[in-house]
Write a structure and sequence with these properties.
The complex is a heterodimer. Chain A is α/β, with parallel strands linked by helices. Chain A has one domain: Rossmann fold (3-Layer(aba) Sandwich), CATH 3.40.50. Helix content of chain A is 35%, strand content 22%. Chain A has a six-stranded mixed β-sheet with strand order 5-6-7-3-8-9, with helices on both faces. A three-stranded antiparallel β-sheet of chain A has the order 2-1-4, with helices on one face. In chain A, helix 5 links the parallel strand 6 and strand 7. The longest helix of chain A is centred in the C-terminal third of the chain and has 20 residues. Chain A starts with 5 loop residues before the first strand and ends with a helix. In chain A, 44% of the residues are buried. By secondary structure, chain B is an all-alpha fold. Chain B has a single domain, classed as Orthogonal Bundle (ABC transporter involved in vitamin B12 uptake, BtuC). Helices cover 84% and strands 0% of the residues of chain B. Chain B is globular. The chains are: A alpha/beta, B mainly alpha. At the A-B interface, helix 2 of A face helix 8, helix 9 and helix 12 of B.
Chain lengths: 254, 280
């Protein structure tokens, strides 16, 4: 049997958010999105606020099911086969965790083992070691800084050794020093652990240095290809800036 | 004095029921407080009041009818919360007033408050019958078994519903199950604490425990200790002074909360003073 080399593939994905509902999902529309990510790729997903990055991720993760088109993770439709979740780690957009939340760092990382096969408690310690938080394991998660909390979530995602990591603007609202540490961590995870990564970010500089491929989203696919191709082309950057501005203006007018 | 209290079978029943109720309310309350659903206990107990009134009106064992109405109400609240047209706190308000309205109308139709119905409002030690005790123990046991079976999943959902869903947990099913279990805890507490104060027993010990607990399980343990202490002391004090047990127990939990806040504030000041002294 031929080995699947594509980690995720999306064909003609279209999703229109039902504006009459009050769900937590954002009201973006995705219009005929197509792209794929090979095993071992680090795909940087860029695009202005409202471009549909989080909505795309919710479709990839099976949180949104009523889309049109095709989404496959390791060759399977997540809506029909939830076992794929065993292979995915997800880190959401940074929301500060309340200081009063009593769970310790170790307890939060242990949550990553729930519903997963072949995981042992030793994996919790090694995941904490990878994110350099072994000495903080007995602290309440709310007592940590934003950057540290985000590393805890990475450790939680790593504890079951996923083959695909999906990171949704993980460095928003954390300080520059923590961002740098975070980028080094992503780079190491990609290179040393050979994990495929889909990473949404507004930090074009970081994406240009770390990502192997770029997906530029603006409700539809504006660019998908090699990182060097995108960032070496001034025309792309100019068009990207203009598109961002248009979307920004449109959201204000709406 | 203690031996004298324990000689009475009604006190033995009150103490045993009280300890069990304290444990189950604490365990469930921690999830409710952290999910910002502290008022759910109120909504469920008010719905239970409507159920009690149905029981008295139809001459059925009232705790059974309260149980049915409360469980149905718990599912109703969960459904309303998931519905997109009503905000979560508004759903709680709708359920709370519906239960109360049904109760008041049925009480009016049956000729006003009876002594037994009043005891359900404010709690009573004297009126816990053998049948009540068996019901309390059974409901509490079911609630605790279900909670412990899904403990880690519930922690995950409390931490982040979306992440829990992505890890493969059936969040919708567990939300229904949890709130159904919370209604069991409310019914188990009705006799001792009373409709009006159940929510406080669910919430206040947990607020105190969250101030000190490091770790989810340790926090739950601290909350259980506070609730059990308050219930035991409350029963003894209400026996001696003839005060309603519900109010006495809840006042004790509030005193422990205020004492803990004061202690924490003093400890913080001492620490800051120590740091400043070291600097100078």
């Amino acid at each position: 049997m031929q080995e699947v080399t594509v980690a995720a593939s999306v064909k003609n994905l279209t999703y229109t958010y039902d504006i009459t509902t009050n769900s937590s999902f954002s009201s973006n529309t995705l219009d005929r999105i197509s792209f794929s990510i090979n095993k071992g790729d680090l795909l940087g997903v860029i695009g202005p606020n409202g471009a549909g990055k989080t909505t795309l991720f919710y479709c990839l993760l099976g949180l949104i099911k009523d889309y049109r088109g095709e989404v496959r993770i390791f060759g399977k439709d997540i809506r029909n086969d939830k076992s794929i979740l065993q292979n995915i780690g997800y880190i959401p957009q940074q929301k500060s965790i309340e200081q009063g939340f009593p769970a310790t760092v170790k307890e939060i990382v242990s949550l990553g083992m729930i519903g997963k096969k072949n995981v042992s408690k030793e994996k919790v310690s090694s995941a904490l070691k990878i994110v350099d938080l072994s000495d903080q394991s007995h602290k309440r998660i709310g007592e940590l800084s934003g950057g540290q909390q985000q590393r805890v979530l990475i450790a939680k995602a790593l504890v079951h050794e996923p083959k695909l990591l999906i990171l949704d603007e993980p460095t928003t609202s954390i300080d520059v020093e923590s961002q740098k540490k975070f980028y080094t961590l992503i780079k190491n995870l990609h290179q040393k652990n050979n994990i495929s990564i889909i990473w949404a970010s507004h930090d074009l500089d970081a994406v240009s240095k770390i990502a192997t491929k770029v997906l530029c989203l603006n409700r539809n696919v504006f660019f998908h290809g090699e990182t060097s191709e995108f960032f070496s082309n001034d025309e792309f950057i100019r068009m990207y800036s203009e598109a961002s501005m248009q979307l920004h203006m449109r959201s204000h007018l709406n | 004095m203690v031996f004298e209290i324990l000689q009475y079978s009604f006190m033995q029943r009150a103490i045993l029921s009280g300890v069990v109720v304290a444990v189950v309310c604490s365990v469930i309350g921690l999830f409710l407080v952290l999910r910002r659903q502290s008022l759910f206990g109120d909504a469920l107990s008010h719905a239970a009041f409507g159920g009690l009134a149905v029981g008295f009106f139809t001459n059925t064992y009232p705790i059974w009818t309260a149980l049915i109405v409360s469980v149905l109400a718990s599912f109703g609240i969960t459904k309303l919360r998931q519905s997109t047209k009503i905000l979560p706190d508004a759903a709680v308000a709708v359920m709370m007033s519906s239960g109360l309205a049904v109760g008041i109308i049925l009480i009016g139709l049956s000729g006003g408050f009876s002594l037994d119905l009043e005891s359900f409002l404010f709690g009573s030690i004297l009126l816990i019958s053998m049948q009540d005790q068996l019901m309390i123990l059974m409901l509490s046991a079911i609630a605790l078994v279900i909670i412990f079976k899904f403990y880690d999943q519930l922690i995950y959902i409390t931490f982040n519903e979306d992440q829990a869903r992505i890890s493969g947990i059936n969040v919708t099913m567990l939300n229904y199950l949890f709130i159904g279990v919370a209604s069991l805890a409310v019914i188990a507490s009705l006799r001792l604490v009373g409709v009006l104060l159940i929510s406080s027993l669910i919430v206040i010990p947990n607020i105190t425990a969250i101030m000190f607990g490091k770790g989810f399980k340790k926090t739950a343990f601290i909350s259980i200790i506070i609730a059990v202490l308050s219930v035991l002391l409350g029963i003894v004090i209400s026996y001696i002074t003839n005060l309603p047990p519900g109010g006495t127990i809840v006042l004790l939990t509030i005193l422990i909360l205020l004492g803990s806040m004061g202690t924490k504030s003093i400890i913080k000041r001492i620490k800051i003073q120590g740091i400043e002294n070291n600097r100078t």
